Amino acid sequence: MTIYVGIDLSGPSNTKETSIALFKGDDSHLTFQQIVNGVTDEEIYELLQEQTDSVVIGIDAPLSYQPGGGDRKADRALRKEIIAKGMKSGSIMTPTMTRMVYLTLRGITLSRGLSTTTSASIVEVHPGAAVGLRSPDLSSVLTYKLEIDPRHNLKAFLEKDGVKDIPTDVLQSSHSFDACLAAYAAWKWKQDKSEFLYPAEPPFHPFPVSC
């Protein structure tokens, strides 16, 4: 059995909005195990170093930036995909934008640290796109970050796709639900069932981007 971890990351000075979700998964099902909210980098390391099974981590944050600034190729490609599905282009932000740069800094630091202290596979994910590129319920995809009812609708969609046992209290926070969606995206990536996949391009972009 593989442990699938979803991390909804926030900036380094706002860790109360960071959530981490752990699931166990096989080829057919992804089963909820644990959610931890308000986690620091130290707590993320401790939690992952406790795992004895193989681990796949999906991180919702830019894990690289484009030399010289601006969009990465992956950002442009994913933005094109979500626009075609009716999602908002602004949900894919340039990693070096003022609103994003601190999140990018934390994402880069955390991913490099995890890659050297664990044997986990790491993938950059976009939770909204992971469900938005699959679910026919566009209204819920567009509003789930602001309202709880759409989260219930998307939870029902996930259950039909093999995701089991997400507690209803997880739906109280968009951050905890996004952590679950990040784990779902990582599970799909590991199964070679990505709806969007941009390969890693080391050394500047060492992790793939998948939804």
Question: What are the defining features of this structure?
Answer:
DUF429 domain-containing protein, globular, 8 strands, 7 helices, Nucleotidyltransferase, domain 5, alpha/beta
Walkthrough of the structure:
This is DUF429 domain-containing protein. By secondary structure, the protein is an alpha/beta fold. It has a single domain, classed as Nucleotidyltransferase, domain 5 (2-Layer Sandwich), CATH 3.30.420. It has seven helices and eight strands, in the order βββαβααβαααβαββ. It has helices at 41-49, 73-84, 101-117, 127-132, 138-143, 148-160, 174-190, and strands at 2-8, 19-25, 30-37, 55-60, 121-125, 163-164, 197-198, 209-210. It has an eight-stranded mixed beta sheet. The longest helix has 17 residues, at 101-117. It is globular, with a radius of gyration of 16 Å. It starts with a strand and ends with a strand.
* Strand percentage: 15-25%
CATH architecture: 2-Layer Sandwich
User: Would you state the CATH class?
Assistant: Alpha Beta
**Overall average residue pLDDT:** 96
Structural class of the helix and strand makeup? alpha/beta
**Helix content bin:** 25-40%
Protein name: DUF429 domain-containing protein
InterPro entries: DUF429 (IPR007362)
